[in-house]
Design brief:
heterodimer; A: mainly alpha; three-stranded antiparallel beta sheet; two-stranded antiparallel ribbon; 60% helix; B: mainly alpha
Chain lengths: 810, 254
Amino acid sequence: SNPFEVKVNRQKFNILGRKTKNDVGLPGVSRSKAIKKVRAHKKERTNVFKDKRFGEYNTKISPEEKMIRRFTLERQQNYGKKNIYNLNEDEELTHYGQSLAEIEKLNDIVDSDSDTEERGTLSAELTSAHFGGGGGLLRKKASSGQQDEEEEKPKSRKELIEEMIAKSKQEKQERQTRRESALELTEKLDNDWKEIQTLIARKTPKSERKEKEAEKPKPDEYDMIVRELGFEMKAKPSERMKTEEELAKEEQARLQKLEADRLRRMRGTDEQANKKPSHVSADDLADGFVLDTDDRRLLSYKDGKINIENEEEEEKEGEEEEEDDEEEGEKEDNENEEESEEESANEDEEDVAADSHSDLESDLESEEEAAGNKEQKKHKTNENESQNVEELDPKMEAAKSELPYTFAGKRRIDPCCLQGNMYSEKKANNFNILCFLQKLVGFLLEYIGELATLDLPELRTIDKLVLFMYMKLFRLLIKDFKLCYDSAQFPLQSVFSVGFDSMNALRELDENGIKKCYSKLIQKFQINTLQECRITTLQDVIKGLFICCLFLEYVSLSRRFVPELINFLLGVLHISLPKKQAQGYTVVHPFTPVGKNLELLLVCDKKDLESWQKQNLPLSIVTRLKETSRTEMNHIRLSCLALCFDLIKKCAALYESLPSFHEIMHPVRIVLTQHMPVNEYPEKMQEWYHFALKELENKVKHYAPLICEKKKPVPLKQYTPRIVKVLEFGKKLTGSKKEQERKQLIQKHKRELKGAIREIRKDNQFLARMQLSEIMERDSARKRKVKELLGSLATQEGEWKAMKRKKGKN
Amino acid sequence: QLPTGLYKKVLIILHDSILPYMNEPTLMIDFLTVAYGIGGAISLLALNGLFILIHQHNLEYPDFYKKLYSLLDPSIYHVKYRARFFHLTDLFLSSSHLPAYLVAAFIKRLSRLALTAPPEALLMVIPFICNLFRRHPACKVLVHRPNGPEDMSEDPYVMEEEEPSKSRALESSLWEIQSLQNHYHPDVAKAAAILNQSLPEMEDDISGLLELTAYELFDKEVKKKAVDVPLEFEQVRGLFGKKNDIFAEHFALD
């Protein structure tokens, strides 16, 4: 209606047959209509802010509960299907809407007091100086109110900056000096503390530790709580206790596995020489140290700390010798003092060691202080060894938790024994004890040797001691062995006795974890003794039989054939027979078919024969045969014979799988069947005899002809196609790989050279072009100048001519 | 005629200090023959002189090999003159004209006796036997008899027979060496295991092994480096504390 409100949409071309809809529009009208519509729509609406927070206005619920409910609600909301498999994604923890992790990060930055952080923040002065713009003016304005009269005169910008720099430098220096002094103070404090600590450590280790804690700045209480919560133990369902049977089963399985491993090793060396025997079982037993220590109850405390142990161990081994000497020296010095001390020390265990020990003590102490060890020990020397032994024995019986350690001086003839008591099994939580033990082991071994060579070997003591031993220092012993072998090779008899004594002591060590090589060495040694030592006395026979026992045990698993064993047993049988001419078997080396040592084991006395009863041979008779009656001697002889029968039985059981078992056992069988005066023996002996014989005889004879292993056929040589990489088409690569590489390099070099030449040429061209253009420019400039000059001259001439003409006119 | 000690001394130096300087070494024939017949160590020593006479002076010695065969008894591996004896035996048996039965008898007897021998002797005698096999391939039936009877109840070889031809060695097999493959000394076991395979052509040089002593073996063992291998896994229970301990059965600690 209103022509001003009408908007006409003009059409450029009229298209036939099309109705035009929007040729005329009324924008104002439609807008007002729309506004009206919206208003009408809004009329019914009342917009309310609805608080959907859980229980916000519910006063009945306590705030904590409210929080918990809200939290659970939120968790429920978030817990959807897609989150089921989201295992390790924890939701972010917040505090007042801020992520805790970020807060912590920030804290870190604030806490640290290093120089670099402060460099980042700008002082107000600096900022104003830099960004103030026109420094002086702004500064005057800002500071006019506060500054004194002196500074009324505005400083120049340069002065200001210099001042600032000086100030900051000063500040920095001050800071540094402060820090240095603090450092010095702490150091001093540490030293002081160390001095005091040695005094305190022994008596009140616990309080000491508390003091230490107190020294540190007390941590924030909130922090502590947080930590506590963080590290709080959560109860977990423990594993069901295992029944005895299950335990036994597990143990069996473990043993079987180890056994299988062992067998594999054994065969590995046999059948496949190329397969290295260095196989180590999957269990962590490979580490000799762990293996050895595992067995002993003493070291049961070291859980999870094995790694560090090993390191320490290595260190220790180096140190060991030095310390030995050290200790020894000290011993000598203090011998007198300590003697008097001895008794009192026994009673009072908390007694601190004498002053003379202090440096040694402090040495150890400094080692120990790291972990706050609570071990206490005392050393004392005894001059008289036997006395020492006597002292040892009751102690051991009495106090199991106490480990009496006794070591003999290294190379001294009358050994002073240093004895240390340690009772730290449970308390000790570090490895220093371990190291200490390692040191002790050396002495212990020596001591055992000492005990074994006594007139009256203290086998029971050794028995006890051996429990705590392990093999770390075994190699040392081997060397000793070698030494004694070297020195006593010719009087083999002495080797026999020496060897026996040490072996006696070593036997258990042997079994416990010796490496293969060592046991082999010992075997070798013992074999030598078995086959080369002449048998002259009853003791020799017993020693020999003892070694035979050892051997049987060595080979009980591997079933290795030991000829010397059979030879010796045969010999023993031989000397138990009355002299006879007709034989049918031959005895070998250490025994002779004729000679004075025959009939060593022969017993003729009827009464003795009847009164004999099987008894265990006491090992002490080996070194010192008691002056006993004939009867007892005869009894011992019979015991030997019985032992021999038993060993034969065991050998037979062990070797029955050998293809020439019957040939091996042939002489033994002949002796047993044809020469033994069985009927004269007591019943028990006859029993032994029959056991042995049965074991020998009821083996089937079984000979299968030998057949060589088939040779692996050597494969025919064949011409396989040679495959060559083609790097560049059209070119054949011949020759070896090296040659090819060389060629390729040459090619590359050529190409590069060409490229370089081209480049140089291009450069030269460019240069020439530039020069040319320069010359041209100069030329053109000169031309232009010449032209200008000429032009100016021409105009001058023209003017001059015009002047002339004018003059002429005039 | 002579005391034993003197006999031995004379025989030891006979071959290099007496025989070369005699105008007529053949005069020693009777002496050596008697010595050879005595047996034991003296026979072993007489061998050397006899060998020179046979070799350089055309001595015809009847039943020489039979005598040599009968010299083999368990003590040869233990006596001092082991190296000398085996050196000579090696010489005597190096002839390729010897009948197979004889060599087989020697092989069988040596290996039978090896069952009581010390390891150093074994380390020597096993290559020795290998060499015999190489020289006399006809004897290889002792280690390789593919079409033989399946199972024998008795070793056909007769140990007590003096005559090598009647010892039926060729019908037997070298079970002794097979047993030695289980020897406790690993080197011996390894050496014995060689006979399982077919032998390489080259002969082993045993001259270095002849003088091997137990001491050398021990020395070698000491120098060896070994890899640490856990062996024992049973807990310690004192000296005699183990289960089924032989020691606990027969010995007491006092």
